[in-house]
What does this fold into?
Amino acid sequence: MMNKRKRVDDNLITRRDPKSPISELYRTIRTNIDFSMIDKQLNTLICTSAKPCDGKTTTLTNLAVTFAQQGKKTLFVDADLRKPTGHMTFQLENDYGLTNVLTKKSTLKEAVATTVIEKLDVLTSGPLPPNPSELLGSQAMKELMREMAESYDLVLFDSPPVGAVTDAQVLGNLCDGALLVVRSNSTEKSQLVKAKELLEQANINIIGTILNDKKKDNTTVYYYSDQKKAK
Ligand SMILES: Nc1ncnc2c1ncn2[C@@H]1O[C@H](COP(=O)(O)OP(=O)(O)OP(=O)(O)O)[C@@H](O)[C@H]1O
Ligand SMILES: [Mg+2]
It folds into this structure.
């Protein structure tokens, strides 16, 4: 089990072109999240959305890069144990990862991959288990989250959408806060309201909503707003 898997992450605009307007917008989101953190302990954040393809992985991987660029020791965890894609974004093998650590086949240190981005580590999903929700709600997950929070300034969890399966609620309940991604011209208002309800029922602190893929003047812009104003 080695840990020498360094790759170039050309898929990530925040790495490829940090000066672009889109990267700047990711920094704006980062600033907003930083403000939410001032009075609260927010080391572990989950990113989810109402339905598939809203842009959870795109948003969270770029935010992970942006936080690392700011100097925060950051861990991106692919906790989408249904349809993981984080390893593709970071161009990593996914033969082991989170699920191996949870089943004690590997330690966190062994399973984590370093990246060419200083301060950014990645834990891919690992082989897909038959029981993702149980694994994510296990005692092993709670212990692992404590270890992650001790080793990193910020731990960002990618997850499946809230609508279909309970994974995001189960994991979100263990996190300090949640980011809810909404895709412009795609997520229905009713789906968003339902997602928000499901997260709140699970006692999850939604720290913000991110509107993804908003087309404006032929450019894609990202907009972050306080959750109370986003209603
Ligand atoms: N703002 C954007 N502009 C252009 N393409 C985007 C944008 N956001 C996401 N995409 C594309 O849309 C697709 C879905 O995005 P992504 O994988 O980030 O969504 P997801 O919510 O993680 O999906 P899933 O529910 O399958 O995990 C990808 O092909 C991604 O490249
Ligand atoms: Mg995804």
Q: What stands out?
A: Residues 226-231 have pLDDT under 50 and may be disordered.
